[in-house]
Amino acid sequence: MNRLLTSDLWPVAAKLSRKAETRLAAIAYVTAETVKFGEDDVMVVDATRGAITSGETTAQVLLDAHDAGAQIYNCPHLHAKLLVMDDTAIIGSGNLSGNSPNLHECAVLTDQSSVVGQARAYIQQLREISRLLTRRELVALTKLPVVRRGGRGQGRAKTSLTKKLGTRRWLVGVTPIDEERMSAAEQATNERALSKLAAKRDVDRDELDWVRLRGSSKMRKESKVGDLMIVAEGSHSKTNHLTVIPPTTILARANSENSTFLYYLRSSRKPDIGKLTLAELLKSAGSNIVPSPRMVRELTPEVFQALERHWPKH
Q1: 9, 22, 251, 304: which has the fewest C-beta neighbours closer than 10 Å?
Q2: Which residues of 186-215 are buried (b: 16+ CB within 10 A; e: fewer)?
């Protein structure tokens, strides 16, 4: 499992922490109890006088975690944001603060054993160079005067992002579309989406490609921004000739009447392939899919990763 968390960072972290037997953290600033620490858990944090008096770290939160059984370490100059809960790690941008849910944060959620092991080792290294705080020291920190800083990052972000990015993988066949035969509503929707995406990415609209889905396919109903896809283009529905673009990411979606538009950028590092090569790659990956311009299929992670691995380089 490897997944990018965005607006769902802290709900996911809180849910995982409730189920976990052990929680290890190296998080620079802590002001909220979003993740509950308990017996034998570890929290490495910036608990310096400056961090406490500026309100970047809240001493009472550290004291509560200590009283619940956690070990609290003071690590000056810490800037990491890392959580390990059992066999899962979250590595990203967010401090454990009350304002973090209002910001545009992101983090990688992974259960890849090598990464989780490295994360555990890194927290252990931090413990070795940090100072374990006693309850008496933590109580003293709670009595320091606090003057909270204002400025960057205060308040809620004015715009929201996609709460949960897609993680699914698709193989879709398409044929050319006569844009003049699309309805006025479809044309308007497509134009708005293309203009918006081109402006945001600072690219020419001609560099953007799109797929139109109709009917009741699973891909049309369930695909999300962030999903990966392989697009096979045919000149007509019964052709034996396909131009298959390498794996790409769905960057945006737009809906109009009975159509859904998916937008993407072609990769410049891998070549297009033909129908025969795609069929050979699918077979070697253990899939029985027969490529065609009408296919809309969801691929397993294993099959998709095999296609990526063996995709021709030149």
Answers
A1: 22
A2: beebbeebbeebbeeeeeeeeebbbbbbee
State which H helix or E strand residue 20 sits in.
Answer: none
Residues 136 and 234 in one domain: no
Average pLDDT over residues 294-298: 93
Q: What is the pLDDT of residues 217-276, one digit of tens each?
A: 999 999 999 899 999 999 887 778 999 999 999 999 999 888 999 999 887 688 999 999
Whether 176 and 291 map to the same domain: the answer is yes
- pTM, 2 dp: 0.71
Is the CB of residue 247 less than 8 Å from the CB of residue 230?
Answer: yes
What is the domain-level CATH number for residue 92?
3.30.870.10
DSSP codes joined into one string, 255-300: EETTEEEEEEE--SSS--EEHHHHHHHHHHTT------TT-EEEEP
d(CA 147, CA 210): 52
**Tell me: the pLDDT tens digits for 252-265?**
999 988 899 999 98
Task: Give a three-class secondary structure readout of 141-210.
Answer: HHCCCCCCCCCCCCCCCCCCCCCCCCCCEEEEEECCCCHHHCCHHHHHHHHHHHHHHHHHHCCCHHHEEE
Helical spans, DSSP H, in 202-263: 218-222
Q: Are residues 137 and 264 in the same domain?
A: no
For tokens 């252990």, name the residue: 124
**Is 92 found in the same domain as 38?**
yes
What angle (nearest 5°) sits at the alpha carbon of residue 291, between those of residues 273 and 297?
110
What confidence tens digit (pLDDT) does each residue in 115-168 have? 999 999 999 999 999 999 999 999 999 999 999 875 444 555 555 555 578 889
pLDDT given at position 262: 96
The whole domain housing 243 covers 169-310
The number of folded domains in the chain is 2
